[in-house]
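To fix ideas, we reproduce below a protein record of this kind.
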Amino acid sequence: MDHMIPGERRRGRSARMAARAIAATPENPAAPGQSGGQYRPLTDRQIDRIYDLALKLLAELGMGEAPQVLVEAACARGAFVNDLGRLCFPREMVEDVIDSACKSFIYYGRDRRHDFEVGGERVYFGTGGAAVQTLDLESGLYRPSTLTDLYDFTRLQDTLTNVSWFTRCCVATDVPDLIDLDINTAYALLRGTTKPVGTSFTVAETVDPIVDLFDHALGGEGKFAERPFCKAHISPVVSPLRYGEDAVEVTVACIKRNVPINAIIAAQSGATAPATPAGFLVQSTAETLAGLILVNVFAPGYPVIFSNWPLVIDLRTGAFCGGGGESSILNAAAAQISNRLGLPSGVASSMADSKAVDAQMGAEKAMSALACGLAGANMVYESAGMTASLLGASFEAFILDDEMLGHVHRAVRGIEVTEETLCEASIREAVLGEGHFLGGSETMASMSRDYFYPVLADRDPPVTWAEKGARDAWAIAHEKARQILAQPDPGYLDAKTDAWARERFNILLA
């Protein structure tokens, strides 16, 4: 082989670097919807034991405080009330409900580009929470969350690639009236994003006016039922093993208007559920099945997410803690159980305890998001923006979490082993030729196919980092958040619908 002269070597290196720069701006190599299931914290035998005991509890101990409307509907399907007045579900009834339950459904966006299917082991990350405080962009300190904050969070996440849906992440504490709060929350979601959304209905009376608003935004009566883009977050169970009457009423109202339901069970270890992880999963599985039964006795096969969200408390203090290994493994195990039952699964991650956007926050968020993603959870809630053990929400955290989730999607995607990717010919060519793989055709193809390139993370040498101002991740995310929020209203709500809403409701967002 002829030797290259120095100038030719430099020109060849420059050409390779230019080609790599072009290849390093690909389409997302691991978009939302990767298939998980690689991480299995429980064996099949352990799942069977947890499931069997959960069914035993439902059959023998049952659920307390069931409203009469539910008792009548459930008893018509085979349930019974025991001597203690608790509503019990025989194993055969529970398994019939599971068999006939919805296994997958389309979660619609107002923009069809954002539609995705919930079910199987496809993994999507989105938001959740009901933070009452916001980490202020100006002061860097926490203050009560406002309706304007909710709108700003909505339009900020609308720009984030790896956040697949937006459930309202904070409560507008400046809207004291519950009816106004529900309606203004829905209005802010409509105005700030065309992704699928989720909200809570504080009382059943707000379901109809909000769905009427959604109908109007889509062009007429009944349009929402055709493409329901908003799901209801309902907590139907008060742990341990009791129904909540208000939640049952909201559930029935949502079914009448075809609002998909996210039935959330959020017991707390050592407080409202056993402290042992196995015992916790027994109770929370029983309670999540009770939520599934609630929906299906009124509407068999109705779209409902089986959301088993194990929450952990610090047993030294009794304080809720959203970060750590216990929360990560419990939510991953909950996803594994749901997937074993073939039900659309929902869990929670990234519920960082840190108040600052710092190393603690990054570690807590990444650990739990990766565990839940690899376990194959369909819907991973709380996965962006949440801080302070769910008491707070941060604009900077949303920005950084979106990039973190890009890495998680890439990890969930895994490694493809094919004749092409094994690269036998390339190895032989490099060993017998130039001694490297730079600029090779397989290298160039792999750059755009196999690698996720972060935008915010700093990969410069220390000297270059210093020359650029030695900024940390918070400073970079802060700048980007301010740039996004400086943009005008995205125009997702037309003037006619806006005027209609303001005429009928007490719309408070300027």
Observations:
- Residues 1-12 have pLDDT under 50 and may be disordered.
- The first helix runs from residue 6 to 23.
